[in-house]
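Risk register update: the risk of archive-format incompatibility is retired. Evidence:
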Amino acid sequence: MTESEFFTSLDDSQPQESLAQILQRFPELFAATTGLDKKPQLWPVRFLFAQDGSLWFATAKCARYYAEISMTPALTLGVYAAETGTFIRLRGKALFSEDKTLVARCLKEDPNLTAAWGEDPNLYIAYTLTGVQAEITSISPDISARTLRVGDSESLLQGITLKKKTELRDRLSRLMERREAEGPKLSADNGIVDGAEPLPAAGPEREAALFAQKLYDGALLYFAETAKALWSRLNIQPIERSVLFETYDEREQFTALAKRLIGNTVIDKPEDLTYYINPETLLERYKQTRP
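Archived output:
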């Protein structure tokens, strides 16, 4: 099938299927992102496969590209079909998954990933696009301009999505109970009070420890508030009294930072909570976002 025949054969009434066909024929794209320095960036991206109506890509967690789309998940992908002078531009938001089966298939589809970053599957993350809008324009008179829309752009997933599972609720409750038992690590005048691991007395180490603890508390509050919408009887007041924030504005600042670092993530396994509500994980993600 020629390129012109391909584009004219696309069925606008089946936008999801048509979009998958386009990407299967033109898998090599460029992604426009918002850089960590807030300037535009351009990255080569490879479409890997379509599954259950989702279009899947992958990247290494240590890549700057991943840091950028974690911070700002809005993406524009583009590809140029030279034979007909046709340009396809896709807009959407990245939604991440660390599902082992998905990641394994991504690595199988694109061996260049492991060639560049190593064989350990834990180094990689898969992502799909939500609320996709694809615009097709061409200089060819045989190919009409059209827009394919997949998903409702007004209902894009924002931040974490917690699956309503009892084991997730119970794991989060245990994390909250442990934090409540530790209590606030500082008194109002910055004196050390009861806590599992007292902060260093002074200096850069103390500042670093304070930052890590506040980032952890911000993530825990973010998860707790999200979970509260699912389980209305979940009591989050005790940890609200235990978290290490001196002002409401500081609480909002660190909760928002934790939200950005966690990105658009679906939590469907208890171990996901242990991974994301973890100072080491949060600090590593924070370092990745630094210029």
